Amino acid sequence: MSSIGTGYDLSVTTFSPDGRVFQIEYAAKAVDNSGTVIGIKCKDGIVLGVEKLIASKMMLPGSNRRIHSVHRHSGMAVAGLAADGRQIVARTKSEATNYDSVYGEPIPVKELAERVASYVHLCTLYWWLRFSEIDSHYHFKLYFFVFFTSITYCWQFHRPFGCGVILGGYDRDGPQLYMVEPSGVSYRYFGAAIGKGRQAAKTEIEKLKLTDMTCRQGVIEVAKIIYGVHDEAKDKDFELEMSWVCDESNRQHQKVPDELLEEAKAAAKAALEEMDAD
Amino acid sequence: MGDPSAETQRTLYPYVTGSSVVALKYKDGILMAADTGGSYGSTLRYKSIERLKPIGKHSLLGASGEISDFQEILRYLDELILYDNMWDDGNSLGPKEVHNYLTRIMYNRRNKFNPLWNSLILGGVKKGQKYLGMVSMIGVNFEDNHVATGLGNHLARPILRDEWHENLTFEEGVQLLEKCMRVLLYRDRSAVNKIQISKITEEGATVFPPFSLKTYWEFSAFKNPTVGAEGSW
Question: What domain of life (chain B) (predicted)?
Fold first, then answer.
């Protein structure tokens, strides 16, 4: 391990002398160990792709979805600890439907990303908040408790989320792509990758001319990248899961249609063989 | 119920109401008709309220009674369909499921003495199976080949019992519905002459634009209505 905290890494409420919070960095390592997740913003929408590493040959294809719709117009791909990811997705769905019922319009993707980031961050600060309290916490009503309880309970029952998410959506401002890390930061991207093969994936994404690409072409490219970064030696089998939200899908977030997915897989396998033949 | 402040939070009577909805099964699916009026007591206050709405891919909902409660029901169903869509697993809720959901909502509200003051008609087609059901504000629900709400039960259903048969074509179904709506227009004081018809088939739902029925007022009985009953009007 490159940087061991030695005493400053036991709790997420402790800074190290050089200003780092080690628990959050360790959470990021959990994300780095998961299968690659990619998102790209094409000119007419977003494409999300996940390299789903298959733990057992007994698993049914299509199970253990890693990409979830969080509202009609947006979806979220999760990397890292799957159970933590479920929690984040559930919260995001709830934020999106709540905004819609209060304001009467689908939540702007920027607003949704901020809420997800805020929630992830909150759970790196306070362990004892139950979910109904988190809503009031946005107004810092429970601030006083931190002083009394965190001193006695500071190394029990809390850890940050061990997952990063890539959130893609299509609202009035067009298609947008955000990534939220376990620390709670979120940035807007035109291409993002997390997980094992993220370095290689980012290099590949940077080569693409995304502003000229439609989502239909983007789906093929994402498949090629994921097949390309998949490490055959270390992980045997994987399943490719992809979704999109674009003009072609009527700005609804949905799984990529089966024939397009098959076309993408075939193109990706062909590209791999070409590379091997060189 | 003993808590005095709870009195003001229960539905006691409806305010803006829609009149009857009539629906029948035909060869390809369901046909439903309703007028577009919203009455405020005895005043015909709103003349363009759409009371027939498609729900998801397979169903059509028509409502009579309190319009604001109908809008609330639409919000519940919107959320239901949204969560169903988010599974993205190739399945979608059919009319039988939506009808059951509505029955649960209506019955449970009635048990709390805080009903949603509507009579609902839910029709749809899924995988070739046609379904047409009704739920009332007290949670009574049933399924039939033709249903109606409110006064439609008394005026339209007798006509349907005589003239409905399996495998009506679209044109025959529309004619039959227009006949029912015409009787309601003549006899129901809360009816408005702006009718909407909608259909749902395997392909999807269509809500047609509103139109007016031709009425005939030259019946001899209308000419001298008070003959034989002087003093009445």
Answer: Eukaryota
- Predicted-complex ipTM score: 0.81
CB neighbours of residue A185 within 10 Å: 12
> Nearest residue on chain B to A73, judged by CA atoms?
B86
| pTM of the predicted model over 0.90 | no
Whether B11 is catalytic is: yes
Report CB contact under 8 Å: B86, A101.
Answer: no
Which uninterrupted H or E stretch holds B177?
helix B170-187
Can you tell me the distance from the alpha carbon of B66 to that of B103, in angstroms, rounded to the nearest whole number? 17
Q: How many CA atoms lie within 13 A of A4 on its CB side?
A: 3
User: Mean of the per-residue pLDDT values for chain A?
Assistant: 86
- Best probe of the B interface among A63, A72, A107, by most B CBs < 10 A, is A72
* Tens of pLDDT, residues B116-158: 999 999 999 999 999 999 999 999 999 999 999 999 999 999 9
State the CB neighbour count (10 A cutoff) for residue B218.
Answer: 6
**Chain B hits for A254, Cβ within 8 Å:** 88
- C-alpha distances in Å from residue A204, one per residue of A40, A81, A191, A233, B35: 11, 25, 10, 20, 59
Give the domains, in start order, of chain B with CATH numbers.
14-35+45-214 (3.60.20.10)
Of B79, B85, B88, the CB nearest to A97: B79
Whether B86 and A254 lie within 8 Å, measured CB to CB: no
- A71, A93, A254: residue with CB nearest B88: A254
**pLDDT reading at B83 higher than 50:** yes
- pLDDT tens digits for range B41-57: 999 999 999 999 999 99
The confidence score (pLDDT) of residue A129 equals: 52
